[in-house]
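Sequence in, structure out.
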Amino acid sequence: MSLTRHEIREKAFQALFALNANPDADENQLFQQLLNPAGTAELEIPAYLSTLVTGVREHQADLDTKIQTYLTRTWSLDRLAKTDLIILRIAFYELAFVDDVPAKVAVNEAIELAKAFSDDQSRKFVSGVLGKAVKDQQA
């Protein structure tokens, strides 16, 4: 089974969301459940899925600090919807640590995740935060 990078990002979002609720869950077991809900066979876990989930978890404090700098004074990380925060973490991780993903792609993929897992307000919010971050990164 070969997944596109977009599909891998969706699985990474789902994994990170589940791990946020249950930080002690077994990552590999979770990946298997996401990749093969029927549990018919052990599947090979796409390398990029592991890269995203492990990377976001290992760099979460740093990512959260970066995200916080782009929130307006009235917003803090704990006020964000968990879906939005996880989407932003994935995007900020790709912007900072994944060289073969252009900034435009990271932003567009985050917006697509917001469309799939959140609402229109979230999509606009994610787009605004990432727009500011990319602008600063390019300056």
